[in-house]
Amino acid sequence: MPDTIALKTAEVALGPAKSFDGPNGSKPKRVLSPRNIMLYGTLFVAAAYYLLPLYVMIVTSLKGMPEIRMGNIFSPPMEITFEPWVKAWATACTGLNCDGLSRGFWNSVRITVPSVIVSIAIASVNGYALANWRFKGSELFFSILVIGAFIPYQVMIYPIVIVLREMGIYGTLTGLIIVHSIFGMPILTLLFRNYFASLPQELFKAARVDGAGFWQIFLKIMVPMSLPIFVVAMILQVTGIWNDFLFGVVFTRPEYYPMTVQLNNIVNSVQGVKEYNVNMAATILTGLVPLIVYFVSGRLFVRGIAAGAVKG
Predict the structure, then answer these.
(1) Has residue 156 been placed in a domain?
(2) What average pLDDT does range 30-34 have in this prediction?
(3) Is 212 inside a domain boundary?
(4) Are residues 112 and 63 in the same domain?
(5) 232, exposed or middle or buried, with CB in 10 Å at 0-12, 13-18, 19+?
(6) CA 51, 54, 56, 58: dihedral to nearest 10 degrees?
(7) Same domain, yes or no, for 123 and 210?
(8) How far apart are CA 47 and CA 86, in angstroms?
(9) What pTM, to 2 d.p., does this model score?
(10) Which of 37, 195, 200, 295 sits a CA distance of 20 to 30 A from 77?
């Protein structure tokens, strides 16, 4: 009797108990659903497509020539050797010289570093001026820059050769640095202009009200807020300039050839035995710098390319 009274009292206080026909909440998703199988299958195929050649390059570069002649390119090396890497860097013949890729590496550094700094510095100021300091003819200037980004390089090679020859810098690193800086300007200006246009205009207007000038606003407000787009510009320029072959072979002399030109001379050599392990090691060495730059700053690259390419 007391239990019945207590039960009725609880029912009055809490209300009648609800009946449940089944479990509540969202239906659990199946791990091996057709959608997941197709999604992860596609990603696996794409990853294998890009990683398999890299795997072959690495394992081949660690094998000796007798093992390579056995023909199984996918098997791991039975005996790891770093001799092909040493030869590719220090003693492989790249034409008349047999000092490997080391000379070309330092030539590429001397070309890439100033070209990246000059092109980014000028393009960032151009983009800032076009986004925040409109002047007479700014839209025409911007249109010319955008058109210049889509002009094929091959069309302008001969005129540039004549201009550099008349300036007395044809065949020098200075001439090649100028060429890379100019050709990187249009696309970088477009990215910087769109990025600066996406920043809050209230900051710019408040700084103007406080009496800040062109360079004060740029250096103290815009640049500190624009790290992602500067990383994007750096990656694009480092990748494009470091991997360039055409400009390097046209606008420089053999003693100033960048790494890519020397790699071509090693791989396409017709003298002696074809050393595939040395060729693979030289190829990996040539591509290490852009890969390292991208992996170190890849997260900022994604953020910056989305803001600089979509907004504005």
Answers:
(1) yes
(2) 72
(3) yes
(4) no
(5) buried
(6) -130
(7) yes
(8) 30
(9) 0.79
(10) 295
Say if residue 77 is in the same domain as residue 118: no
**Do both 219 and 250 map to the same domain?**
yes
**Element containing residue 291 per DSSP (H, E):** helix 276-296
Amino acid at 78: M
- The CATH code of the domain that includes 185 is 1.10.3720.10
Together in a domain, 122 and 253? yes
Are 241 and 115 in contact, with CB atoms under 8 Å apart? yes
Per-residue buried b or exposed e for 238-262, using 16+ beta carbons within 10 Å of the residue's own CB: bbbbbbbeebbebbbeeebbbbbbb
Rounded CA gap, 130 and 196, in Å? 9
Residue 308 scores a pLDDT above 70: no
Specify which residues 171 forms β-bridges with. Answer: 252
| H helix runs in 133-226, sequence order | 138-148, 153-167, 173-198, 201-209, 214-217
Beta-carbon-side half-sphere exposure of residue 43 (alpha carbons within 13 Å): 6
d(CA 304, CA 309): 8
pLDDT tens digit sequence for 102-113: 899 999 999 999
Range of the domain at 146: 102-259+288-310
Coil, helix or strand for 136?
Answer: coil
pLDDT for residue 7 is more than 50? no
- Give the closest residue to 225 by CA, choosing from 206, 197, 187, 205: 197
Check pLDDT > 80 for residue 27. Answer: no
74 and 155 assigned to the same domain? no
Total domains in the fold of the chain: 2
Same domain, 120 and 230: yes
Whether 273 maps to a domain, the answer reads: no
Average pLDDT over residues 224-247: 89
Tokens 């053999």: give the residue: 254
Is 1 inside a domain boundary? no
Residues 204 and 57 occupy one common structural domain:
no
143 backbone dihedrals φ, ψ, rounded to 5° = -65, -40
Within 13 A of 121's CA, how many CA atoms are on the CB side? 8
Rounded Cα distance between 312 and 306, Å, is 11
| Spatial separation of the C-alpha atoms in residues 270 and 141, rounded to whole Å | 49
